[in-house]
Amino acid sequence: MEYGDNRSTEWNISALRFLLKDYPGFNFEKNFPSTYRWHTAMLKREVVRRINAGWLRAIKDRDEK
């Protein structure tokens, strides 16, 4: 795994959670099948899950304030 791989998963999570969640007709899996497969494969890696868990926890804590 490269540093850029994890940065990309964080970007995808941000885009899906904040930018595209209310976009009419958007379906990550359908609209970007190759990226979706790569993204889900990356999220299955333990190190990526741990990094993103901390990052998502920080976002949640920020949103709760």
Describe the protein's architecture and organization.
- The model has no long low-confidence stretch (mean pLDDT 82).
- The termini are far apart.
- Helix content is 78%, strand content 0%.
- The chain is flat, with a radius of gyration of 13 Å.
- It has 65 residues and is mainly α.
- It contains four helices and no strands.
- It has one domain (1-9, 27-65).
**Assembly type of the shown chains?**
single chain
Major sheet size, sense and barrel closure: none
Total separate domains:
1
Mean pLDDT: 82
Number of helices: 4
User: Which percent bin holds the helix content?
Assistant: over 70%
Radius of gyration: 13 Å
Shape: flat
What is the number of beta strands? 0
How far apart are the first and last residues' alpha carbons, in Å? 34 Å
Helix/strand order: HHHH
Strand content: under 5%
SSE inventory with pairings:
Layout: H1 3-19, H2 28-31, H3 33-43, H4 46-64
Provide a concise account of the structure shown.
This protein is an all-alpha fold and 65 residues long. Helix content is 78%, strand content 0%.
Q: What structural keywords apply?
A:
65 residues, mainly alpha, 4 helices, 78% helix
